[in-house]
Amino acid sequence: MVAWTLVFHLIGLVFWLGSLLAVTHILAVQTEEPSPEVRASLARLESKLLKGLAHPGAALMVVTGFLLVSEDPYFLRETWLHGKLLLVIILVALDLRVTFRAKAFQEGKIEMTRRECMALHGAISLVFFGILILVLLKPFGLHRRVAQLQRPISPVAIEGLRG
Question: Is the dihedral of CA 38, 44, 46, 52 positive or negative?
Fold first, then answer.
């Protein structure tokens, strides 16, 4: 059960982050597009990506994340997970910023620059890399400290203590 939950968690990750990165790039292109027809087409594509992939992917990640933690609540004691959850909250804030800015831009209420869009793209990428580092390396993990405490002392170390 945990393996399948993790698979769907990762599928949600691909949908959410892939779509957010695509939308920020499309927005950057849209800011420099002179043709109103092309801008309207790009706006529809952005909306479809956000509503059809990014937000369902985010929901899938949140639901499967809760399921994974409920399977082993001990993970809530892990410092790396606290960092990951903080980065996920930042990612949600970035998602909301992209969504609201894109909608206002499409409605003509605000102007966006390519630089702003690419800054959002870069911020999303950095947060994603941070999450990957925390999940894959698990720095600050309790399991590392426990493993170090339970490791048998080598004869060389014992000899060094006597010396």
Answer: negative
Residue 27 and residue 112 in contact, taking contact as beta carbons nearer than 8 Å: yes
pLDDT in tens, 116-149: 999 999 999 999 999 999 999 998 776 555 555 5
State the chain's maximal CA–CA distance in angstroms.
81
d(CA 22, CA 70): 32
**C-alpha span between 50 and 102 (Å, rounded):** 10
Q: How many domains does the chain have?
A: 1
Confidence (pLDDT) at 2: 92
At 39, list the tokens.
């801008």
Instruction: Return the sign of the alpha-carbon dihedral for residues 11, 90, 142, 71.
Output: negative
Range of the structural domain that residue 74 is part of: 2-162
